[in-house]
Amino acid sequence: MARKTDGSDQALVELKSVDGAYPLYGTLTLQGGANPAEAMGRQPDGNFGAVADASLLARLGLETGDKLSVGRATVTVTGVIDTEPDKLSGGLEFGPRLMLNEAALPETGLVQPGSPRRNGYRLAPIPLAVQDSLDRKGIGNGLPGPNHDARRDRGFADVAALQHHHEIDIR
Length: 171
What we know:
Helix content: 10-25%
Radius of gyration: 20 Å
Low-confidence stretches: 142-163
Number of helices: 5
Distance between the termini: 6 Å
Largest sheet: 10 strands, mixed
Order of helices and strands: EEEEHEHEEEHEHHE
């Protein structure tokens, strides 16, 4: 649940916390072109920033710069989500999206034993040029010989990046 800081209104939200690698594929864009990483970072007022679906702001009568209570934390709404690349892969949603930096999540106090949450991981393959460079140095895949292409022949891809996110159903 996200609440106006004066307690006058609240809304069920789909809270998503993301790490610095988010997103591995596609682009998270905010209305007005703000940088998502900066928008979700620690703000000058000391709060973490949060980006939200326009429908959440409309529902609560908020604008960017306004504050919301999420659990025990107060966050500053710093952007409106224009496109979220993995939105359709999340399945059923219980409310509009509110997205935070994963560093803000502990401040909310929402992650407790028994909390309804989903942890997700996304993997990105190492580009072929990087794989070739690692192979030439003998550290690419542990397979014998320089420029060994067995992993590609078998359809394997080494992991270059790992992105972690939490989704919490706040009721």
